[in-house]
Please model this.
Amino acid sequence: MQERIAVIFDFDDTLGPDSTSGYLRNAGIEDVEGFWREVGQMMQDGWDPVPAYLYHMIEAAQAGRMRPMTRESLRAWGRKLPLFPGVERLFGYLRGVAREANARVTLEFYLISSGIGDILREMPIAHEFTDIWASEFHYDGEGRAVTAKRIISFTDKTRYVFQVQKGIIGKDTRSKPFAVNRRVPPDQLRIPLSQMIFVGDGYTDIPCFSLIKQNGGIPIAVYDQKHMEKWGNAFQFVTDGRVSNLHSANYRDGSDLVNFLTMAVRSLCERIAVAANSYQG
Model:
């Protein structure tokens, strides 16, 4: 019986404001909204959204529209990445909830993002995550981004949910892209999908919402109160039956989101306890 729970987060507009937009402003792009409109025009020409924005960032840096985009400049932005209120204390709090509900359960946190890995791995909360998967650049000898090395979008995110499920985690797995395809017997899965909570905000999270819900886990949609134009998109996840609940991305003590996360963790802990008491393996 697997006595682990995974809480999997998106980052942008889930745990903090959009990390890429923040980097662009910090790097000298004055009209960030204009940058995203240009990405939208690329999509009209057949580009997928994530490779489009990664390529356009490289293009903008090479054209001198922004400061050189280097690995170190991305990491430096990550070290001062803003978070939504209450996020920093959330992880310890939820671990405490799990211990109180079922001392045998281990609570693990994961991040799966279409954002940029060299930013997200440097953020103040990076150490809270068992693993972080995000889009990646390849750099030249001077450390400048020259092409995309890994792209995470839409159903790509489900690949990493399955890696959490099968225990394909850690740096050593980065050079084993086909390992996720191996069959793992149900009793050897590291964390069943039914013992996962997925928290996200956007269209790239829809496949994960559906996968988690269909397999007995708990998908939660959040929205940033500062961006009213996104509220309708978030509510559509509810009306489409893709998520269990919808909350504003407020992680302060006593918020509806924190209360629901508390109930979700307790519920899974209790479910594991019941299964363990009746387990015949």
In short: The longest helix spans residues 256-278. The beta strands are 4-9, 106-116, 131-139, 145-150, 196-200, 218-223, 245-248.
